[in-house]
Amino acid sequence: MNKQLQDFWQQGLTLIGQPHFLIQLALIAGSLVLAWLFNSYIQSKLALHNPTGFMYVALRSSQRIIMPLSLALLFWFCSALLEANEIPSKLLDVLLPVALALGVVRLLVYILRKAFSSSPLIKSAEPFVVFTIWLTVVLHLLGWLAPLLKLLDALAVTFGESRISLLMVIKLIMIIILAFTLALWLAEVINQKMKNSKVISPSMQVGFSKFAKFFLVTSAFLFALNAVGINLSSLAIFGGALGVGLGFGLQRIASNFISGFILVFDRSIKPGDIITVGDKFGWVEQLNARYVVLRNRQGVDTLIPNENLIITEVINWSYADPNVRLEVKIPISYHNDPEQAMALMLQCANASPRVLTTPEPTVRLMDFAESGINLQLRVWIADMENGTASVKSEINLAIWRAFKANNITMPFPQRDLHLKSGWPPAAQEPETLAAPVAKDD
Prior knowledge:
Blueprint: H1 2-16, H2 19-46, H3 54-84, H4 90-115, H5 120-142, H6 145-154, E1 156-159, E2 162-165, H7 166-195, H8 202-227, H9 236-247, H10 251-265, E3 274-277, E4 280-287, E5 291-295, E6 301-305, H11 306-311, E7 314-316, E8 324-332, H12 338-351, E9 362-368, E10 373-381, H13 389-405
Antiparallel strand pairs: 1-2, 3-4, 3-7, 4-5, 5-6, 8-10, 9-10
Helix pairs in contact: 2-3, 3-4, 4-5, 4-7, 7-8, 8-10, 12-13
């Protein structure tokens, strides 16, 4: 063992002393300097721009691969230059795939973080992706990659005319992961682009985003199958079985998925709408493929299946007009002036910042009740998402203060008791018999 280490050390010293090794070291050092200068120049130019959306993602992606990509190009150019002059370039040939792998790793990790939300699964997937890429590079440098691929291809099974090998399965998994990652990243870019659009309505934004995501994911899956040589026509039986599964086990999921598209394209419910579904009230936070996120005033999110919004009655407070009318009922005593009370109620309503001036508030004398006169104040608000209890409380408190300052009272039920004459006298209790008192003689 010691002799092998000594031989390896001696070969290394011999290699270092060769002129072609020194030439390669000089070229590598020059490539590093040129790549660093080029990267600094490009970064300074890109820093002058402040893009958003897709251009921001593209800019950040390019910034991550400028250095390794420029290094790989310089290594390739230097290697070709040495080979043209019949000078060995083994060291450059080793560093070339390393630089390419570095660029691929940085790009894939960035796309993973952009395509998926931050989660423990994504954080655990990043080291696996990095390890797989570097393992492939090491196997390539050691010359073991080609024999390993042949071995994996030899492990195969045959189904009729189709031959499925372990290598094909691994390729399929890798291509599906890459294609799905790219598809979800593009779908997220389109979604952000739709959200920033001021021309397209919110419901159409959600519709385009849903359709783009569905189309991209489906295309990625079909592309992955075609890339590994699987005949797509052979999937007809699988498609039929999937249809039967949708008809039975996945019926509700398919119904919710289709209902989501119906809600988007008929524009009956869109993000930001204030709705009531059964005993649930709130505003629509998100329209997803399977459910709608409804957030109430307490900040609690309720997930309502899309199918429920199709088959049940839904009150959309902001469907055609965001304005909503509120009614405040106030009784006053009969000895008070109703016109004065109505004027005070209008003043209190107009003083509230949430009450609209158009349509203007109105007060109506509704009826002469048993205990007093019933008045009703009608006001309009345009921010139903902020609730109604706060504005009603504000108006009621202002009315109470105004009535108190003007001696206007609010009645309460009263009952008068009249005693009529002619009733029989109340029965008298019998006198207590006193004991006989003895007389003194």
